[in-house]
DNA sequence: CGCAGAATGAAAGATTTTTTCGCGTCAATG
DNA sequence: CATTGACGCGAAAAAATCTTTCATTCTGCG
């Protein structure tokens, strides 16, 4: 897991490749090559370069939560009491360490954190809130939004081109 | 793109495989086999079965937004005026069709929709709000949370085991 | 003009994925 | 109690993909 965080420049070939991989990274390089007008080795070199530069951060399978018994997705806005760097960092680490917390963002506005939580039951969520919020004396308050429909889910980034 | 939405049962082998693929789906089946104590073909059959059943919904590359010029991630809570089925469905379709809307959830609570928006600049966000919210007369109000730190990002589902 | 650096494609080599096939297990059945 | 069929397994072969190698092209620049 080595990271060369050297920011690289991407041309339209790279963007076209990314656009394909964002949707299906099991696409053979040969097909990608046909789509973008490059040979398979050229495609491969560009992919590896983007992986090393961190443009491609990961290659993952997307699992349907409902089919593995994790049918409840919840948004939580968290407001903290004190925003010292230490306490914020501690909160970031704690939230990030919880496997039920699928996503965590530190934000401006009427809240300080926004969490996406995935749990099997409301009981599990209730237990989590007790552990994570009531058990943390820097949490001023939190608001819960229970998802009824995951209208659009993904991590695809809109790409120029 | 055929989907057999037949819900299947997953054993501990399947869950172990999912856990690996959720983190890195470029892991060779041979290595997965070693990790879970199965042969490569057995792993392969299980993966294919889970893909056909929709347990695995997609295989994607995760792209770093900052490195493709989309450095701003924003949460938006949207509250609508009328919650008739037609209007809600129309809103779902509209939000889902916007490429800058990376994620969209229909939720209960003090808001009706939560959006995750990815844009290159605040100007682009401003333009999007005009088009999407001010230009939609069923939007009562919306609240914006600008992300300062993407503490944890992903789609990994917590798996039993 | 010529050279260095960077990227390409064709082809060969290495690895992985996929298929084939025979075996063992288990449950239902005669 | 034997038989049958469904099911999933592993070994091995076959097919496809990924990766490396290498000669070539193109560009910028001294």
TrEMBL record, chains A, B:
SMART domains: HTH_ASNC. InterPro entries: ArsR-like_HTH (IPR011991), AsnC-type_HTH_dom (IPR000485), Dimeric_a/b-barrel (IPR011008), Tscrpt_reg_AsnC-like (IPR019888), Tscrpt_reg_AsnC/Lrp_C (IPR019887), WH-like_DNA-bd_sf (IPR036388), WH_DNA-bd_sf (IPR036390). GO terms for cellular component: cytosol. Coiled coil: none annotated. CDD domains: HTH_ARSR. Residues 10-71 form the HTH asnC-type domain. Keywords: DNA-binding, Transcription, Transcription regulation. The keyword Transcription regulation applies. PANTHER family: LEUCINE-RESPONSIVE REGULATORY PROTEIN (PTHR30154), TRANSCRIPTIONAL REGULATOR AZLB (PTHR30154:SF34). This is DNA-binding Lrp family transcriptional regulator.
């Amino acid at each position: 897991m080595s990271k060369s965080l050297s920011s690289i420049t991407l041309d339209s070939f790279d963007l076209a490749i990314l656009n394909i991989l964002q949707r299906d990274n099991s696409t053979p390089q040969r097909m990608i090559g046909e789509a973008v007008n490059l040979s398979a080795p050229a495609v491969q070199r560009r992919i590896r370069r983007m992986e090393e530069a961190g443009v491609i951060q990961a290659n993952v399978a997307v699992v349907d939560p409902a089919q593995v018994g994790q049918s409840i997705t919840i948004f939580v806005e968290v407001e903290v009491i004190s925003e010292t760097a230490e306490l914020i960092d501690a909160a970031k680490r704690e939230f990030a360490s919880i496997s039920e917390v699928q996503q965590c963002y530190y934000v401006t506005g009427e809240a300080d954190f926004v969490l996406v939580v995935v749990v099997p039951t409301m009981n599990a969520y209730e237990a989590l809130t007790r552990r994570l919020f009531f058990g943390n004396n820097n949490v001023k308050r939190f608001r819960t939004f229970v998802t009824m429909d995951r209208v659009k889910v993904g991590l695809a980034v809109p790409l120029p081109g």
